[in-house]
UniProtKB/TrEMBL annotation:
It comes from Paraburkholderia haematera. Belongs to the AlgF family. It holds the Pfam family AlgF. This is Alginate biosynthesis protein AlgF. It is found in: Periplasm. InterPro entries: AlgF (IPR035422).
């Protein structure tokens, strides 16, 4: 092999290393994604199928997206009990159903699906609601902002605090919306009619970043929280 060829191979390897260091190891192209939001007022122990490790979630906290390879059931375990949802396999994008904690789930997902499960707790135990969207960026040159409405009966509006511009004009209960934004410093407020949440400061977002907003609570007292969209990938070594 000539010096020119060796140099070309070396340059190609260096370029590949640069790409890997920039983007990190990527999950399979046909993967789907699963995460859990603790929308209750008490901590909960959760375990997700896929790449995310079991953990205790504080109130308002959200897991990273667990990466599910094809054939892996989208199973969530809450305080040692598996969430059961017989209708999961038939769910369409942005559809939600309730789940109970008494049986095994063999929920099917499709490549690129991103499932967010919100947990609530009452006298009868844990209950879950899910929203199914897609894991994709809207615009690589801007930040991606996603809004999830888990507040029953609320048509949510999200805007900049202090009568600022509207970011999401209407997100129906049980639905998701997505848009690209220029990275800005802002405080956002979620509204259900005349009721408003406390202001939520957006973190510093760069082009290509993805961030989720969650409307929880209820019509009378909406709560707005948020988290960066982060993959639990590559899987932690045993």
């Amino acid at each position: 092999m000539s010096w020119v060829a060796l140099l070309s191979v070396g340059v190609a390897h260096a370029a590949a290393d640069d790409v890997a260091s920039l983007y990190g190891p990527q999950p399979p192209a046909n993967a789907s994604y699963l995460r859990v939001l603790n929308a209750s007022s008490q901590a909960v122990r959760v375990a997700l199928a896929g790449s995310e490790a079991p953990q205790t979630l504080a109130p308002g906290a959200v897991t990273r997206f667990s990466v599910l390879t094809p054939g892996t059931p989208a199973r969530v375990t809450v305080d040692g009990k598996v969430l059961a949802d017989a209708a999961w396999a038939d769910a369409a994008a942005n559809a939600t159903t309730n789940a109970t904690t008494n049986a095994t789930t063999n929920a099917a997902t499709h490549a690129g699906d991103a499932v967010t499960v919100a947990l609530r707790h009452d006298a009868k135990g844990w209950h879950a609601t899910r929203i199914v969207g897609r894991y994709e960026r809207v615009d690589g040159l801007k930040a991606t902002l996603r809004a999830f409405n888990f507040a029953p009966g609320c048509s949510a509006k999200i805007g900049v605090d202090g009568n600022g511009p509207t970011v999401f004009a209407q997100v129906a209960a049980g639905a998701q919306d997505t848009r690209a934004i220029n990275p800005v410093n802002a405080k956002l407020v979620g509204r259900c009619g005349a009721a408003a949440s406390a202001a939520l400061p957006l973190p510093a977002l760069a082009a290509g970043d993805s961030y989720s907003l969650f409307v929880t609570g209820d019509v009378a007292k909406p709560v707005l929280s948020g988290a960066r969209d982060v993959l639990a990938w590559p899987p932690a070594a045993n």
